Amino acid sequence: xxxxxxxxxxxxxxxxxxxxxxxxxxxxxxxxxxxxxxxxxxxxxxxxxxxxxxxxxxxxxxxxxxxxxxxxxxxxxxxxxxxxxxxxxxxxxxxxxxxxxxxxxxxxxxxxxxxxxxxxxxxxxxxxxxxxxxxxxxxxxxxx
Length: 144
Description:
Elements: H1 4-10, E1 22-27, E2 31-37, H2 57-74, E3 83-95, E4 104-115, E5 118-127, E6 130-143
């Protein structure tokens, strides 16, 4: 397991855009399972939608990408402190059920392909063991 403070040592994101609250499991360079608690106090719900709060699908995809970023950074041989993970593409995105305040979103990313500084992950997000969203997440490293 990895706490929020440990996550912040790896990912450059900060509130309100850090979308991973806890890492539940990591298989170095291969897999990560993370948790995001969905709170009604999050700023996004002021506008999406005020009378029926639903977490936007793009935020779920971003949470999956951040989870995949943990996998990439779990292998010290692959990254340096001067590199940031960026989106390179999103394919096969599907949204199955709405994610609402009070839900615990479980994020799972599995590496399916990697070449040099380019990674492809299968990502699944679920609530109460029901698939909420899925996508193929493509990421790349870029020096800063």
